[in-house]
Amino acid sequence: MAGSEHAAPAAPDAVKILIAGGFGVGKTTMVGSVSEIAPLRTEEPLTVAGLGVDDLAGIEEKRSTTVALDFGRITIGRDLVLYLFGTPGQQRFWFMWNDLAVGALGAVVLLDVRRPESSFAAIDFFERRNIPFVVGVNGFHGRHPYPPEEIRQALALPERVAVVLCDARERASARDVLIALVDRLIADADGRADEGGRIR
Amino acid sequence: MSEGDAGGRLVRPFTLTGGRTRPSRADFALITTVTAVDPPPARAPRPQPEHLRILKLCAEPMAVAELAARLDLPVSVVVILLCDLLEAGRITARAPHPVTRSAPDLDLLQKVREGLGRL
């Protein structure tokens, strides 16, 4: 750090990964178990106009509501910070995902095998937008009744989408899900480089 | 953008922003990193209390989302305040790392991979 003594601290480069999935599937738990800070929460006020044509059931009696966003941070190095954002679980807040998805490296879709359908919307969302994702199967009390291959087939997921059994409460387990995602991203990047090489 | 109404503002989210509900600049994402300029520029206008709270928090670089959480204000409100500070030359803003699917940054991905491996 040579230079002027008044130099402002250099801002690190920032990237983000989304943690998605149905309501109550363990998104905030996962953010909390790998984050170096206690998960933080921001609340955004929503107007009914902001909800567009989406489902207003349950909020029509309120003049305004808020949508909460939980997030955490992992310092990768002096010059790089990774942020993890839990997407809002209620489906009527899907439009928030669009904003969140911009600039994301990729996503983890957490799945509870007792009610997998609660995470279908998240899988659809990332598939349709071509955003790379992995599926983290969060075992209830850490139990995993189904092997990953069976879950992949049940969800009709292509081979390139990793299905990882995990326990969102465990730091090492949550970390391994993130690593599976980044490995996928690296494999994609390598594949692209190879294709480029062949074309040229 | 010169409003001469420095006096008597109520401390409620959108009165802090002088009634504006949209940022004048679109350059603040959730993970844009904000850093206070130290020392402040010579002719900077006197900041309001909420501006001062932000400047204190981002003496060290801090992401917009984290500022909002620590200030307990909605991101949309914080962004408007940040626009004021940026215009006044009191902060610098670093945009998030650009992510393009067509040309992924392999170096960056490997750094992230190694960082996660150290957790």
Automatic annotation (TrEMBL), chain A:
Gene Ontology terms, MF aspect: ATP binding; GTP binding; hydrolase activity
Keywords: ATP-binding, GTP-binding, Hydrolase, Nucleotide-binding
Keyword Hydrolase included in the entry's annotation: yes
Cross-referenced InterPro entries: Gliding_Motility_GTPase, Gpn, P-loop_NTPase
Domain of life, per lineage: Bacteria
A Pfam family it matches: ATP_bind_1
Family note: Belongs to the GPN-loop GTPase family.
The name this protein goes by in its record: ATP-binding protein
Organism field: Streptomyces fumanus
UniProtKB/TrEMBL annotation, chain B:
Pfam families: DUF742
InterPro entries listed in its UniProt record: DUF742 (IPR007995)
Name recorded for this polypeptide: DUF742 domain-containing protein
Native source species: Streptomyces fumanus
Biological classification of the source: Bacteria, Bacillati, Actinomycetota, Actinomycetes, Kitasatosporales
